[in-house]
């Protein structure tokens, strides 16, 4: 999928949760997508796959009290969770540095184009939690109210990464929907209820 199409569809998704000018949001997306390298796997299409799946889950998850600002940041993290990835396999401390690199790029772009979304909770809390939970560590800021959203971020990013075509990631997101919300889920204690508020 070319970057123009990614920007166009991402704009349609994010504009529903973003209360800023159309120009600012579009400029933010253009700048953000341009930070993805044209490499296998960790590219803009991979980020878009995660955004697509995250948007579906956000509509279905039973959390009607989520603020629009938090939902917007969640979707931005889905889209940009691998932004600036150099295309090399990192491990150990190098991986922690790479996750910090992703988070800092997101913060930098938000500060430049959408400064109204740069608050202590959203950036120092949410992005820090995103960074540490992505690596399987406890966040030092321990932002509990975002834990479900951020756990989903990991799952949808992984599912999106394996998709190469539009039809494939549509199928993947439907499978995830069935796994999390479906009536065929054997363990009813783990089944999530759909909410009519979204």
TrEMBL record:
Example of a GO biological process term: signal transduction
Species whose genome carries this gene: Vairimorpha necatrix
Annotated protein name in UniProt: Phosphodiesterase
Residues annotated as transmembrane: none
Domain of life: Eukaryota
Signal peptide: none
SUPFAM superfamilies: HD-domain/PDEase-like (SSF109604)
GO molecular function: 3',5'-cyclic-nucleotide phosphodiesterase activity
InterPro entries (UniProt xref): HD/PDEase_dom (IPR003607), PDEase_catalytic_dom_sf (IPR036971)
């Amino acid at each position: 999928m070319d970057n123009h199409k990614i920007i166009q569809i991402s704009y349609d998704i994010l504009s529903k949760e973003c209360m800023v000018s159309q120009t600012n949001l579009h400029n933010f997306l253009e700048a953000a997508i341009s930070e993805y390298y044209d490499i296998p796997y960790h590219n803009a299409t991979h980020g878009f796959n995660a955004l697509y799946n995250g948007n579906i889950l956000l509509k279905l998850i039973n959390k009607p009290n989520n603020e629009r600002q938090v939902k917007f940041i969640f979707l931005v993290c889905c889209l940009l969770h691998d932004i600036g990835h150099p295309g090399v396999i990192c491990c150990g401390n190098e991986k922690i540095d790479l996750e910090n690199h992703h988070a800092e790029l997101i913060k930098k772009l938000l500060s430049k184009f959408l400064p109204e979304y740069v608050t202590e909770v959203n950036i120092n809390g949410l992005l820090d939690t995103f960074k540490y939970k992505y690596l399987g560590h406890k966040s030092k800021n321990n932002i509990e109210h975002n834990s479900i959203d951020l756990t989903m971020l990991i799952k949808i990013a992984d599912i999106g990464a394996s998709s190469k075509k539009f039809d494939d990631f549509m199928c993947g997101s439907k499978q995830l929907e069935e796994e999390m919300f479906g009536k065929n889920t054997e363990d009813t204690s783990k089944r999530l209820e759909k909410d009519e508020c979204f």
